[in-house]
């Protein structure tokens, strides 16, 4: 252990600990902006400056290793002045239109200005102005608000192994952008939105569709239905002051009804349905010798990734649409017929933890026979919170309400789709019983839960000679490892679950942002606990026991994996390549 | 891979410079910090760093294209546009500026029909601006390659260009 003092207080930390972490251990928060532990330790913003006895000049605490006998001071006049100067320099090249900014009151830059007591910006100069990049259906880039902390770069390269954002040019002209000043839509960005989750300012945000949804809601000729993904219910509350992981399903349904949606459905219903189709597909591939390992297909960021970077492996994907697309397709067929409304008068809105789903809903593969897109609008959890606030609803005071039938009934297996490993666990709960004909005793498959990079399990299917080998990866850098193994012929699995976002949808790119970007894993664990609690609380926890799904097959779809099911619930994929943009010939 | 890796038109398929580039990349492939030297040598082969070259370097060294582009735009030694045979540098240091360097630059832009940092379509001249080159006594000053021209007036530009 290393012994040092910080502001006169003794502290002992393991060798290799930074002064920043050591200070945290004694309850001292040193301001940081660019720092992300283990990911972005570049000492760029210099807001974390401290004074160290015997060292010349101030030191960046985030990259300074604690050493024996060190005397650190975090709150001297020199430190305060230097931090202010550095922040004022950033602010002098910043639009400062907080009042009309998406991040107003939720902005790290704003918070730091407040915490450091900035009352004036003593520097003035040219302010960088760049055009907005609104090219993609998912993400808006506003480089004028970028403070060059490079947190997005670190996430995109290291966590997602996509790497389409990088600092370019130098000096005043520096900008974090895709190559050749192209737009995000022109490069092989998977639109996962993980960069949005770590951006401290309004420089990265989702493409906002709330106005369009308000407009649909006030159109009397439209029957507007809404569905909510599993992960929304354990995160939406945070936007209204609840602890991360608090289950707010009842209030959420209430809020949606008050907003004026004609029916409030649950994507969980379609998650159960997905299991019927996907487990059936897996069993089929096992028996008929189809392409293995089969890989899940419910994460559109993941789908875009394999289409860009591993198009040779597209056959491994399950052909199942993602659950909200299935529900959209059913809303405009099964449900439309049942209530006697024309499909073109039905508007499907999906509340998703995800920015990639905004892109997904525009895919031409996901247009039904009637020429209508399965889903009309995708809103993130953050957008839903904005709508609730704009409608003047006092979220905490809302009564609990429940989803409408028939597309609102679901099981515990569906809700766990929201966390990494959940789809796998749900699929195994069903595949096990279908293949073996026996009842699964302990349905909690803990081997595939949690935040380990790649999780593996082997499940013996009694009455057969099959031991099902499965793997789960979350975050695309982890997925890439599995894909490389498949390419090399070394992946000895039957079934793989991949979710683009680390942790799964619970911290998808459309979820409430973390209070502190360095507590992202704690946030994941809290929301994850909410998810598994919700599973436990449900009376039925296996998808194949969902009576509403059973009825859907009996009354409408016919056979599992049959013709109608294929037409409505399955899709295909498109090889896109690494460089979708054609080079401009000069 | 399914994708046509370098689908940029047949123009480049038989271009021996791309073979040189592949050899160059192969030479550096497993070395650390290879990007800058590879870009440097690639620029020597092509005269500049076209996008197609950046993509091949990215693929060959297995680094994201955004990073290649970032490095190529960070160092002023790299150029993303074709360079002309002769490089014109107009000094915009203070002394030159107050003595009318702006008019010299405007005249050059007019005469060559290009903007700063561009190259004439015939590949003859590239027009750049420079910081003070230390010839303030001769202001306003421009350089063409190694030659220095001082006490310029817009009227002289045409004649000077005609010498190249
Ligand atoms: S990014 Fe933050 S500081 Fe900048 S304008 Fe928006 S709220 Fe204000
Ligand atoms: S959306 Fe994902 S892939 Fe695209 S820039 Fe952001 S982190 Fe990278
Ligand atoms: S876009 Fe956001 S996260 Fe990325 S460098 Fe700029 S401010 Fe930082
Ligand atoms: S330099 Fe330490 S947080 Fe940015």
Please tell me about this protein's structure.
The complex is a heterodimer of chains A (586) and B (164). The model of chain A has no long low-confidence stretch (mean pLDDT 96). Chain A contains 18 helices and 17 strands. In chain A, helix 15 links the parallel strand 16 and strand 17 (495-499). In chain A, the strands form five sheets. Chain A has a five-stranded mixed β-sheet, sandwiched between helices. A four-stranded parallel β-sheet of chain A has the order 11-10-13-14, sandwiched between helices. Chain A has a four-stranded mixed β-sheet with strand order 12-17-16-15, with helices on both faces. Chain A is α/β, with parallel strands linked by helices and 586 residues long. In chain B, strand 3 and strand 4 (147-149) form a beta hairpin. Chain A binds chain B through residues 157, 162-170, 177-180, 187, 311-312, 575, 577-579, 582-586, and chain B through 1-4, 8-9, 50-52, 54-55, 59, 63-70, 73-74, 81-82. Bound molecules: iron/sulfur cluster (3 copies) and FE2/S2 (inorganic) cluster.
Question: What's this, in brief?
Answer:
The complex is a heterodimer of chains A (586) and B (164). With 586 residues, chain A is an alpha/beta fold.
The CATH class of the largest domain in chain A is Alpha Beta
CATH homologous superfamily placement of the largest domain in chain B? Glutaredoxin
Which secondary-structure class do the elements of chain B indicate? alpha+beta
Q: Structural class of the secondary elements of chain A?
A: alpha/beta
List unreliable stretches of 5+ residues of chain A. none
Strand order of the largest sheet of chain B: 2-1-3-4
């Amino acid at each position: 252990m290393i012994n040092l003092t910080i502001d006169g207080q003794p502290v002992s930390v393991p060798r290799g600990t930074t002064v920043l972490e050591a200070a945290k251990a004694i309850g001292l928060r040193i301001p940081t902006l660019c720092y992300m532990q283990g990911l972005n330790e570049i000492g760029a913003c210099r807001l974390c400056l401290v004074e160290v006895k015997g060292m010349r000049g101030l030191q960046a605490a985030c990259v300074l290793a604690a050493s024996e006998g060190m005397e650190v001071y975090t709150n001297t006049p020199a430190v305060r002045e230097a931090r202010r100067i550095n922040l004022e320099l950033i602010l002098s090249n910043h639009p400062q239109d907080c009042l009309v900014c998406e991040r107003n009151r939720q902005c790290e830059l704003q918070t730091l200005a407040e915490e450091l007591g900035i009352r004036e910006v003593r520097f003035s100069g040219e302010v960088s102005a760049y055009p907005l990049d609104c090219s993609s259906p998912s993400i808006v880039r506003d480089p004028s608000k970028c403070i060059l902390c490079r947190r997005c770069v670190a996430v995109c390269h290291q966590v997602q192994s996509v790497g389409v954002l990088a600092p370019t040019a130098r000096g005043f002209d520096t900008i974090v952008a895709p190559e050749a000043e192209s737009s995000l839509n022109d490069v092989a960005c998977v639109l996962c939105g993980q960069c949005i989750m770590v951006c401290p300012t309004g420089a990265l945000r989702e493409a906002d569709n709330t106005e369009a949804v308000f407009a649909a809601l006030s159109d009397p000729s439209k029957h507007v239905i809404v569905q909510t993904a599993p992960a929304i219910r354990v995160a939406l509350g945070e936007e209204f002051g609840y602890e991360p992981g608090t289950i707010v399903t009842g209030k959420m349904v209430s809020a949606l009804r008050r907003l004026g949606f004609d029916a409030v459905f649950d994507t969980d219903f379609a998650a159960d349905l997905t299991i019927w189709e996907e487990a059936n597909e897996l069993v089929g591939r096992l028996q008929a010798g189809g392409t293995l390992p089969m890989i899940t297909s419910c994460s559109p960021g993941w789908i875009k990734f394999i289409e860009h970077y591993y198009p040779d492996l597209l056959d491994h994907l399950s052909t199942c649409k993602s659950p909200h697309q299935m529900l959209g397709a059913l809303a405009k067929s099964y449900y439309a017929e049942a209530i006697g409304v024309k499909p073109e008068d039905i508007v499907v809105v999906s509340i998703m933890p995800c920015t990639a789903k905004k892109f997904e809903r525009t895919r031409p593969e996901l247009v039904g026979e009637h020429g209508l897109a399965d889903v009309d609008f995708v809103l993130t959890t953050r957008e839903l919170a904005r709508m609730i606030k704009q409608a003047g609803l006092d979220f905490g005071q809302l009564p609990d309400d429940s989803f409408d039938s028939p597309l609102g009934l679901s099981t515990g297996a569906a809700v766990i789709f929201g966390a990494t490993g959940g789809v796998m666990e749900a699929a195994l709960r069903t595949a096990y019983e279908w293949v073996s004909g026996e009842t699964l005793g302990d349905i909690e498959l803990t081997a595939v839960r949690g935040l380990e990079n790649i999780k593996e399990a082997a499940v013996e299917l009694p009455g057969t000679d099959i031991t099902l080998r499965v793997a789960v990866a979350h975050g695309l850098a982890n997925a890439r490892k599995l894909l490389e193994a498949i390419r090399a012929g070394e992946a000895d699995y039957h079934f793989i679950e991949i979710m683009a976002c680390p942790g799964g949808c619970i911290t998808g790119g459309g979820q409430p942002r973390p209070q502190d970007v360095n507590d992202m894993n704690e946030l994941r664990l809290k929301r994850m606990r909410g998810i598994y609690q919700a599973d436990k609380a449900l009376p039925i926890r296996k998808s194949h026991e969902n009576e509403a799904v059973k009825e859907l097959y009996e009354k409408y779809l016919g056979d599992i994996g049959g013709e109608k099911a294929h037409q409505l619930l399955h899709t295909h994929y498109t090889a896109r390549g690494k460089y979708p943009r054609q080079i401009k010939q000069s | 891979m399914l994708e046509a890796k370098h689908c940029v038109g047949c123009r480049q398929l038989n271009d021996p410079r791309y073979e040189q580039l592949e050899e160059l990349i192969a030479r550096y492939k497993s070395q650390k910090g290879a990007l800058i030297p590879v870009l440097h040598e690639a620029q020597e082969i092509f005269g500049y760093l076209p996008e197609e070259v950046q993509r091949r370097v990215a693929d060959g060294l297995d680094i994201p294209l955004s990073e290649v582009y970032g490095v190529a735009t960070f160092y002023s030694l790299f150029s993303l546009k074709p360079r002309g045979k002769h490089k014109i540098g107009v000094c915009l240091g203070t002394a030159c500026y107050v003595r009318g360097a702006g008019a010299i630059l405007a005249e050059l832009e007019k005469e060559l029909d290009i903007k700063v940092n561009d190259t004439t379509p015939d590949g003859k001249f590239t027009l750049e601006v420079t910081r003070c080159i230390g010839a303030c006594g001769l202001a306003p000053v421009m350089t063409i390659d190694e030659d220095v021209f001082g006490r310029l007036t817009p009227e002289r530009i045409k004649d000077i260009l005609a010498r190249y």
